[in-house]
Amino acid sequence: MPDLRFEATINGRRVSRSAKPHQRLLDFIRDDLNLTGSKEGCGAGECGTCSVFVDGVLMKSCLMPVAKAQGAAIETVEGLAKTGELSVLQKAFHKAGASQCGYCIPGMVMAATAALRSNPFADREEIKERLGGNICRCTGYQKIFDAVELARDVQNGRLPATALIESDTDEAVIGKSVRRIDAPSKVSGRLRYAGDMTTPGMLHVQVLRSSHAHARIVSIDTSAAQAMAGVEGVITSADVPGEDGFGVFVNDQPVMARDKVRYVGEAIAAVAAEDLLIAQRAAAAIKIVYEPLPEIFDPDEAMRPGAPVLHDYAPDNITKHIPIRVGDVEKGFAESDLVVEETYSTQPIEHAYLEPEAGLAYVDHDGVVTVISPDQNITHHRHMLARIIAKPISKVRFIMSPVGGGFGGKEDMIYQGMLALLAMKTQRPVRLVFTREESIVSTAKRHPSRTTLCMGLKRDGRICAFQMKMICDGGAYGLSTEGVMRKAAILAAGPYVIPNVRIDTYGIYTNNTPSGAFRSFGALQTAFATESHLDICAERLGLDAFQIRRTNAMRDGATTHTKARLGSVSLMRTLDALEAASGWESGAPNSRGGTRGDLGRDDNRPPCALGARLASNRKQEAAE
Amino acid sequence: MLTCDEYITPVTLADAFAAMAAHRGRYRIVAGATDTLPWARQGRAGDVHIPTLIDVAKIPQLRELSVGDKRVRLGAATPIQRFLDNVALARALPCMPRCAVWFADDQIRALATIGGNIVNASPAADATPCLIAHGATAQIASARGQRTMLLRDFVTGPNKTALADGELLIAIECDALRGYGGSFEKVGHRRSLVISLVCLAVLLRLDAEGRRIEDARLGIAGIGPRPERLADVETLLRGAQLGGDLLEQAADMPVDLVASRTRKDYRREVVRGFMLRGLINAAKCAGADPSVLTGHLEAAYA
Q1: End-to-end C-alpha distance for chain A, whole angstroms
Q2: Is the Cβ of B34 closer than 8 Å to some Cβ of chain A?
Q3: Interface mutation vs chain B, best among A63, A70, A119, most B CBs within 10 Å
Q4: What is the ipTM of this complex?
Q5: Rounded to an integer, what distance in angstroms lies between the CA atom of residue B137 and that of residue B151?
Q6: pLDDT in tens, B116-130
Q7: Among A163, A402, A495, B225, which is 20 to 30 Å from B101 by CA?
Q8: A1-79 in CATH: which number?
Q9: Which of A45, A65, A617 shows the shortest C-beta gap to B108?
Q10: What is the mean pLDDT of each run of 10 residues along chain B (302 residues)?
């Protein structure tokens, strides 16, 4: 494959280098020039973390073959603050608190720069439209739009430059907007996430993943992969020197599949090679013979006797069952004027942090196995890894790199073990960077749930009995399922005084992608059922949705269903504030007429539309 | 991941045909490359090796743009963004700016080309139904010569076109429809970077009073294997007095064309709603007398 000679101007400097004909502009900028402010969030043109200017026009560098940029003038985020002084937009992002995890921010700053270069007077709608190609998972975008509007007004002289300056922070910080000290590193693209880190002699890792949901591994033949030039190490479960198993509550997951695979996407082997292409080709050359096993994808079916069993230690496929019993629900139902039963379900949800999983590992000069990754639980993982690789804790080190979004999705040690083993086997630094597809296929999701809820109430809305059974699909491995089931059960009956409560939450093994931690940790699934149910009951009783909640609300000094005494309860204040802020029209949930009085107010957000710039073009035309 | 042994960027048509001949059977043409790169990823085509990529986006004939009184000529490598930033083009092709603003995002529109959108031949391609409504023809060239055909015949099915081995789509010619009101309706999952479930282009020319439809052009996509022109609806509308009953009648007509493999009932409902909304929006842009568009329809669908 003959290389091509690539010549361009990058951030004002002439570059003349050889490049691979298949390289994308993003690969060249990141790998060859080490300009890592441009990120790869998706590799498919969807997220905008890789945006760069090519001859003055913003483009997604993951969609551009490097040869296409031949001879062009390219500007990356590093070019915006070349001398270290942040641009007006970068300062505005800092001032407005527009960066959180920061992974989307270099691309966002580039898109905002392009928007204001195209129209220095763009209004908020047009700014939204022009930033449409860039995704942020943390902020909800409002602070980003605030920042762009602030920068626009400073650039136009409508606001003084001092509007960008840090406000006086001598006073107490509680109740104040405090600037993030890491924001300058994020808005400038200088902050290096794990996938941006390189070290001399570093190898690249490709993981081979299961194409079966449930199968016995008859054999793994790595000989062809081992024999390839440029391959420095291949590992399978046979390379684990210690006790192979990790998890949060139960160590049921091997570093790589051992004896059998339990879901599509499970790691089976990993290759470290001189470059990623070699590693990919070697991984593809590993031969695996599977013997298919019966698969189970529905948690209800998995609970039935005779269902296929995933883990020998759990012959009933139950990862965890959490029961809560208070009073006597049968008595409560007997006393009720109305009994309502409904079933609610929620789907698996991907965390979709903009930074796909990545890590860099090496064995240092003292023999300490070191893993750098955006890991949300490094201390626990350090202890687990020491056991897995049979080393004293003093010989294992975890370094937490900046987390480009986690939301609970980076709490599991799903790849750090492979990195450690490859660093030990090759005695060279190794780096693994997930693709977006790999991240979605192989990592934990929010637990999908099916909840049957039966509630008994008096005519005035008082809840006499609450009975809930929630079955959650925990997928192939335990991960955080036990904790999620606990919190789901603890919070299931809501902040309501209910004398008779029966709650059962079950986390079940299936051959689906494992479920794990996700912000709210089980409370979402049960709260969705309970709060939806309250609205349905209010409708049946002809009660106002706020009234039914106030009637049942816990007050200061209440005791929860799990016997916790609450000193103060803010529910009544929360309901008051919510009722006022939402413009609630009192009445039963189904009592609304054809027109809604709460729409079209200043604090409403209208449905999304496009064409803001077409409207401004028309104005321009009319003026001509 | 997409890999190749060679990336060729010809700067003349003759060079392009020579490269195609030299690498026959082992090349793929790219223009913007914005469809090709995401295609070669896990979950779609996976890792793909194409020995030779031939990038036609720098050939001058394919970049040419001319806006005449009657016809508009668009080089096949014209980026989609031109429909937004070229005022003369926007006036001659009244539904294209709204189509372009819903097309991917600013950054992709700067790279993605009109020819690429057509040749990729996705049943959900946004630009094709608009151009079909503009009476577009496709200009095809090869080392042997040139030929021209109607764009609606050029797209033969999902990812299929009438291009033969050794041929390139070099330009699109279509009717300049200044003074027409244009609209483009599209439904997808979010604002930017959306693939259409259904998209509809409507062009209307009204009389001076804004009451009678002098001409109507409609193109639809996303509801079957290839984009369609709605000739029977055009016949109904042409010469008719604008009014709520007429629009309701027109809106029902294409509902039975929905032949998608998925979400058929949903698409049928969308088509009806889009027809009303598209016709009303186009009529408004064409200067319709506000009193003839019944308030009920306008509130519900505009």
Answers
A1: 55
A2: yes
A3: A63
A4: 0.94
A5: 5
A6: 999 999 988 999 999
A7: B225
A8: 3.10.20.30
A9: A45
A10: 96 98 97 96 94 98 96 98 95 95 95 97 92 97 97 94 97 97 86 84 96 97 91 97 93 90 87 93 92 72 60
CA dist A2 and A383 (Å) reads 48
Domain B181-301 class, CATH top level: alpha beta
| Residues A287-319: tens digit of each pLDDT | 999 999 999 999 999 999 999 999 999 999 999
Distance CA A517, CA A474 (A): 11
* CATH architecture of the domain formed by B60-175: 2-Layer Sandwich (3.30)
Chain B contacts of A617, Cβ < 8 Å?
87, 90, 97
Chain B partners within 8 Å of A68 (Cβ): 9, 33, 55, 57
CA distance B283 to B264: 28
Half-sphere CA count of A417, side-chain side, radius 13 A:
33
| Number of C-beta neighbours around residue A499 at 10 A | 16
Of the partner residues A22, A46, A128, the one whose CB lies closest to the CB of residue B2: A22
Instruction: Give the HSE-up count for residue A281: Cα atoms under 13 Å, Cβ half-sphere.
Output: 14
Q: Which pTM value belongs to this model?
A: 0.94
As a residue count, chain B comes to 302
Q: How does pLDDT run across A559-601, given as a tens digit for each residue?
A: 999 999 999 999 999 999 999 988 888 888 887 656 666 677 7
Distance CA A20, CA A1 (A): 8
Q: Does domain B2-55 have CATH number 2.30.30?
A: no
Whether B60-175 shares its CATH topology with B181-301 is answered no
